[in-house]
Write a structure and sequence with these properties.
Number of strands: 4
Strand order of the largest sheet: 1-4
Number of helices: 13
Shape: globular
Helix content: over 70%
Radius of gyration: 19 Å
Structural class: mainly alpha
């Protein structure tokens, strides 16, 4: 147990340092190619910080453990939006751009709705069984390809500010991104493995581990990246990272996992997916409530309260 706790902290340290390098390198790439920090966060950073979720979910799919694959993604997305964005908003209120409001946040809602429709097609429509078939996985992956293509083809910034900082050399920025991702992935895996070992030693169920410990652990890269971005006043990078990570988790990770092995939703309740949908909707309301088009500290408090209520519900229903 002592060794696992030590490895837990080593993994956490790798994640924190990796996030710093990733944010700096990604920002440099954004400036060099004229892409907005949001698009870089949405794609490169979002996909990179989702690597731990991919590892955990794909392994779960290979082993036929749907609770791990599905619970990890659902829990991670709830954790990302409610806890990580909530904490980040407390540190740095984030501007929500017209593109965020019209395109990115609604797309997130539509993808979650698609997941619910495919995953609960028996409960909702009386078709087949609840879960994701290989065909469902192919549909999610096809949407993922279209989404990536659209993000890059329409990703030219409208609000890039002049920056007098000398541009970082491309090879150095790329090295920082790769090194940062390596720290995030290996540190995140070390953190997750240690946390799961400790949880199993305490007799905690697979579903609870998946939607809490695994979800929180595999979301450590997103948390570290968003805090690092907030410290550098790069709110769009943080927001893009969370939205991108959430979309990748559903389309790429669950889509790929379902292709590997059909995923049953027997261990997942409508309440779990309801909270997931709610998390996307409250992000949309931040555009119109309080300080319009700003994810402010009041929104952050609301997000954290909803996350705490969901965590309490999980504990009560252990």
């Amino acid at each position: 147990m002592i060794v696992q706790i030590l490895l837990l902290f080593i993994g956490l340290a790798l994640v924190v340092f990796g996030a710093d390098y990733l944010v700096d390198g990604a920002s440099a790439i954004a400036r060099r190619f004229g892409l907005s920090e949001f698009v870089i966060g949405l794609t490169i950073v979002g996909m990179g910080t989702s690597a731990p979720e991919m590892v955990v979910s794909f392994i779960g799919a290979f082993e036929g453990n749907a609770d791990i694959s599905v619970g990890n993604v659902i829990g991670s997305n709830i954790f990302n939006t409610l806890l990580i964005l909530g904490l980040t908003a407390l540190l740095l209120p984030m501007a929500i751009t017209p593109d965020n409001r019209r395109k990115d946040i609604p797309m997130n809602i539509l993808i979650v709705t698609l997941l619910i429709a495919l995953g609960f097609k028996s409960t909702l429509f009386g078709l087949g069984t609840d879960g994701l078939t290989r065909m469902d996985g192919a549909i999610l992956l096809a949407v993922f390809i279209l989404y990536i293509w659209q993000a890059f083809t329409s990703g030219k910034p409208e609000d890039m500010k002049a920056d007098d900082t000398p541009p970082m050399k491309f090879w150095l920025a790329l090295l920082m991104i790769l090194g940062g991702l390596a720290g995030l992935v290996f540190g995140g895996k070390l953190f997750v493995d240690s946390a799961v070992g400790i949880a199993h030693a305490l007799g905690i169920s697979d579903k609870f581990i998946a939607v809490t410990i695994l979800a929180g652990g595999t979301s450590m890269p997103e948390l570290a990246t968003c805090v690092a971005a907030a410290a550098r006043k790069k709110g769009q990078l943080a927001l893009g990272n969370i939205i991108g990570s959430n979309i990748f988790n559903i389309l790429l990770i669950l889509g790929g996992s379902a292709l590997i092995h059909p995923l049953s939703f027997v261990g997942i309740s409508l309440a779990d997916l309801g909270v997931l949908l709610l998390s996307t909707l409250v992000l949309l309301t931040a555009c119109f409530v309080g300080r319009k088009n700003v994810l402010d500290r009041l929104d952050g408090v609301l997000f954290l309260l909803i996350w705490a209520a969901y965590l309490a519900w999980l504990i009560v229903n252990l």
